[in-house]
């Protein structure tokens, strides 16, 4: 089997937000082969990511065997090294890598989870992200909830945040998980102070309180935060996760498989984290792209709900009573009608 074409487009779904999550957050990559199979993957980078696919990655892949995924990943990384390593170039590679994995599953007539040694059909608990504690009253089916405080994260809003977290715990009761997302807007002092105030509410983790570049700050939080720290959503490649894991700067690692380099890199991150006895909880894990890895590799599976505006992804399993499970369809088990997709130009 050989690759005959590599294509990338940017679909837009219903109610897609008018910010970077739409313009840069997702692209659809399709890889065609001479065997009549097409593999699909979702990456990122918007029109810039598409440019990387069309001008660099496509030329590298045409005529190649798509089943040599690790070799192709390394070659794509080297081809973008001068302008890549992180960000848009790796987000583009992510989509290509996932499409290669989809092809591998389809060619072997197996779901991706089976290629990694797992089984389809196992039920995985989910947690839901909300932007206002009042939204918790209508989503009680999930195993847990993450309160996103990115809109009220200024230093003079600490009391507002603490009050919101307290009310969130009151609304969901004591039997469900509760997490807090600071979206890189806190600092070391405010994180320590808030963690001490909210520890009594049994918080599973504080997510990304600092910039991903502030490793020394995370080193301090590792020792002084009263609540475990999570992060990695905005980090790229297993190489960049290595110091986070070796120094145990995060208790919970949250790679986004559509951004961090694809399934090839997510598997490496899982292996390193497992050896270090750290937890992995992929960003948007209930989306099909990471769900296969969670089902196959995670001893304590928990999947975050995905992007509701990704309505153009057909075949994504639904969440029933707070649980989600994979089908036994080959590859990722998705279908795309490319002719009906509404595109961003």
UniProtKB/TrEMBL annotation:
Give the source lineage, highest ranks first.
Bacteria, Pseudomonadati, Planctomycetota, Planctomycetia, Planctomycetales
Q: Name one GO biological process term.
A: amino acid catabolic process
Alphabetical keyword list: Lyase, Magnesium, Metal-binding
Cofactor(s) it depends on: Mg(2+)
MF GO annotations: L-rhamnonate dehydratase activity; magnesium ion binding
Q: Where is the Mandelate racemase/muconate lactonizing enzyme C-terminal domain?
A: 133-228
InterPro entries per the record? Answer: Enolase-like_C_sf (IPR036849), Enolase-like_N (IPR029017), Enolase_C-like (IPR029065), Mandel_Rmase/mucon_lact_enz_CS (IPR018110), Mandelate_racemase_C (IPR013342), Mandelate_racemase_N_dom (IPR013341), RHMD-like (IPR046945)
PANTHER family associated with the record: ENOLASE SUPERFAMILY, MANDELATE RACEMASE, MITOCHONDRIAL ENOLASE SUPERFAMILY MEMBER 1
Question: Species name for this entry?
Answer: Gimesia aquarii
EC nos: 4.2.1.90
What protein is this chain from? L-rhamnonate dehydratase
Pfam families reported in the protein's UniProt record? MR_MLE_C (PF13378), MR_MLE_N (PF02746)
Q: Under which main EC class is this enzyme filed?
A: lyase
| The UniProt record lists the keyword Metal-binding | yes
